[in-house]
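Handout, page 2. Input:
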Amino acid sequence: MPKKTTYFAIVCTILMCMCSSSIAQTKSIHGVINQYSRVLEINRMARTVTLEDASMFQQGDLRDTVLLIQMTGISVTGNDLGDKTKGEAGTYEFHIVTHVSGSTVTLLTTPDIYNTNEFVQLIRVPSFKNATIDGILSCKQWESGTGGVLALMVEGTLIFNADIDISGRGFRGGKASNTPYSGPCSFNTTDRTNLRDYTEADDLAGNKGEGAVTVDYFNPNDPSSNLKGYWPTWNGGGGGNGKWSGGGGGGNYRGGGIGGDQACNVPGYVSGNGGNPIKYNEFKTSERIFMGGGGGAGTGEGTDGGNGGGIVIILAKKLQFNLNTVTGEPTVIKANGGSVDQRIDKGGAGGGGAGGTILLSVQEYGDIRAQIRGGNGGSVNRITCSNTENSMGAGGGGGGGFMQISNDMSQLSNWDQAGRLQTNGGEAGRVITTGGASCQNSTGNFPGWYSLEKFQVQLKGFLNNYLTPLSDPVCYGEPVTIQASQPVGGTGIYTDYEWQSSEDHVHWVKLPAVSLTKMEYSFFRDTYVRRVITSGTADYSTPILIKVYNDISNNTVAPADTTLCWRKEKLKIRGSMPTDGGGGGPYTFEWENLNDSEEDNNTTNKDLFIQLQAGGGKQSYRRRAISHYGCFSSWSTAVFHVIPAIVNELAPPVNPDVCEVSTETLTGTLSGGYGTHYYYKWEFTKDINNVKNWREISQQPDYHPVLDLNDYGEYFYRRIVTSGVCKDTSNVVKIRFDRQPELSEFEIRTNGQTGDQVLKFLFTASLEVIQPIDAGIGRWEWSSTKDLQGEKPFFSPDDEPKTTVNNLKFNINTITWEVTNGVCSTVPVSVNIIVEDIIVYNALSPNDDGKNDCFFIDGGENATSSELTIFDRYNNVVFKSSMDSSEIRNCTCWWDGRSSSGKELPSGTYYFHLILNKEKEKRGYVVLKRQ
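Output:
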C-alpha cells in the first residue's frame, strides 16, 4: 500500500553520534562549535581519560561523542614515526563518553596508545540532523596543546551559506625577536657545534615554527622560547641563523621552502630549513592526521613565521555549497597556511605556514570547493643586490596541505582540474630592490595533495552504525525504505549484519534486508527497527521507532460485484467516506479503470460515474482513499459482469387495422442477453396511458392478436424478453379491431318512393335509408354509365340516412348507400334515378276540343325558370314569355296559338326557342292548325 508522496529517505553514510544532546532538524551554526581540553592521563584498562578541564561535560552518565587526538610526539629525527608503542603523533579516534566524574571521563571502548607526555587533547564533537553554516565556522586557535581542530557530524545535509575557515589555526609560526643586530654576518660558531640540537642554537637565531615534534624539545613554560636555529621541528619551519637570514616554511603533505641567506652572502647553515613533509604513505592514511607546520621566524628586526592550517573533519551524508549570503561568492572549506605580508629593511622574513588537513567522510559532495594552500613567505627590502646594509633573507613558502575523502576517489581529479581543489604551496618571499628588481630568493610553492585511496574515519565503540529516523509516521502496510550509515571502524569487514524489528523493544525478529545500508519492509503497527553488525564485536544500532498510521477504514464501493445488463445511461459507483486512518482527513480519492479502454475516469470524487462497454464481459473499476498526509488505503474494487443488452424490436404489423379477425402474427428481431434461454411475455392494453392496465396474454416468441370479448377498438401490444438478469420491453405496436356492420338489407326511398325512380327534367331528389346503422358510418355515392359532363352530383349531407342529391344527370343516376366501420363494410344497396329530358309536342289545334289545345312541354313543369320565343316562318317573333318556378308550376298552357298581343295567329308552321333553367335550350317547330 504505497504512499502517494514517496518518502525521501536520507541515505546515511556518515557517523551519527550517540550523544545526549538533542539533534535539531536543521541547526544554524557558526563560530567555534567544538570544546577542547588537554588530556593529562589515559588509563586504557579502565577506559578513562583524565582531563585538565572537564567543564564541557555534564557529570554522570552521558552519550557524548568526542575526538581523542595526539597532536605532537615525533622525535627530531623522525625515526620513531611508526613506533606504535610510543604513542604516535597524529593518532586520532572518535569515542563515546559513557560517564563523567570530576575530571575523569569514561569511554565506551578502550582507546588506542597515546603518550600523554605529549600534547593530547579531547574534543567534544557536536552532531546535527541537518546543519546550515550561516556565518564563518572555525575552531579554537592552536595554543598550549589544545585547539586547531574543527570536527562535526551531520546526519543529513551540511549547507554552506558561509565558509569554513581554519586557515592559520594550526601550529604557530616562530615569533620574531625584533632584536636589532649590526654585527658580523655569521653568528658565534661556538654555539653552533650541533645545530640539530635545538638547545644549542645561538640566541640571536630566529625562532622555529611549531610542528608535531616531541615536546621534549620544548620549554614547557614557553614552547617557542628556546626553539631557535635553522633545523625544523619536524614539520615546523626552522628559523634564520645568520644576519638577517629568512625562516623556512612549514610543512604538511609537502615540505616547506628554505629561507633566504644572510645579508653578507656568506655561505653556511644560516637559512631556516623548511618543515619536513609528512609521508602519509608510510602509515595508514586513515590513522594519522596533522595540522600544518608553522613557518620559522627571521633574525634581527625580522617578521614572524606564518601559522599552519588546522584540521577539518566532517562526517555528513551530503554537502551543499551555496553562494555566500554576504559576499555572493561561492562558499569554500579553507585550511590554508598563513602568509607573511609585512616587508622589512633590516631583518630576515618569516616563512609561510603549511596548509592544513581536510578529512571528509561524505557520500554526496555537491559542488565542492576546498583550499589547503601553503602560506607565502615574507619579502624584504634592499637598496641594491650588492648592498650589504639591508635585508637579504626572504621567507620560504609553506608546503601544501593534505585532503582525504571517502567514497568515489575519481571525483578528486575532476574537482582539481576544475579548480575547485586548491592545493598549491606558498610562494617564496622575494628580495625587492629600490629599483624594483628581485635578488636572491628563498624557495617555495610545494603543492599539497589528496589521498589516492579511500580512508575510514577512526571510530571506537561504534561502527558508524546508525539508522536514519523517518521524519513522519508511515502509512499502514506501506513499503518503507530505511537507510543506514556506511559502517566505519571495527575490522573493516561488514558482511556479517542483520536487520531486526520489535514491537515491544524486547523481542527482536529478523527482517529481510536489501543491503548493508538499506532495508525495505511494510509495517502495520508501530515497530522498532535496528541493525546489528558484527565486525570484531557485535554492534547494535540505536533502535528507531517506525510510527505507523492506522489503516484507512471504511473504504468501500457499491456495488462491489454484480452481474447486470449493459445500458446506455451512465452508472454510478457509490463510494463510502472513510472514517479513520492514514493520519486523518480530509480524504481524496483515486479511481482506476482496469478495463482495456480509453475511458477517462480521472476524478478525485467520492463517487464515480461510468459508461459500461456495450460489448459486455467483465468490467472493473477500483478506488483507494488518500488521507491528508498522503497515505493510501487498500483498493476497493467494483466488478461488473456485463451482459450485452437485449435488442427486442417488434416489426410493425402489415395490416394494423382488421375487421373482426386478424390474420397477422406479431414478431420481431431479438439479440443480446445470454444469447439463449429467452423467456417471453406478451402484454396488451387498450389504455396506453395507464401503465397498470397491461395484461399478460402469451409466453410464446410470437403472438397472433385476437379480439377480446367483442371489445372493438385499438389494441396495443408489447413483448417483454428476459435472459438471465437482462430484461427488455419492446416497442409498442397497435392493431385496431373494427366491428362488421350487420348485413340486413337497406331500403332507399327516393322522394318518398321505393325502387327506381324516373324524374322528368328534375335534377334534385330527396333520399332516405330506412334501415338503421348498428356500427360504423354510411355514405352516399353517385355513379353513372354515361360520361360525366359538368359538375358532379353531390349529396347534402353525404353521410346521413336522409339527404338530398343535387345536380343529377340525364339518363340513369345510380345512387349507392354503403356503411363502413374502419376496414369493415357492408354490401352496398343502390337505387337508380332516371332523369329524362323534356318532350315538346309539335302540333297545336286550339279549338277547345280538349285535344292539343295548347303548346305542351312534357317535364317542363319541373324547370326552375323558362324563356319561350315563337317565330313565324319569316323569323319574326310572334310570341315571347318567361316564367319562374312558381309560375311554371301553375302554368296550364305554355302557348295557345296567339300572338303576344292576344291575336290569333293563322295556321302554319312556327318555330320555337325554349330556354329552361337558364341553360337548357331547345329549338324546334310546331304546326298551328285551325279548323
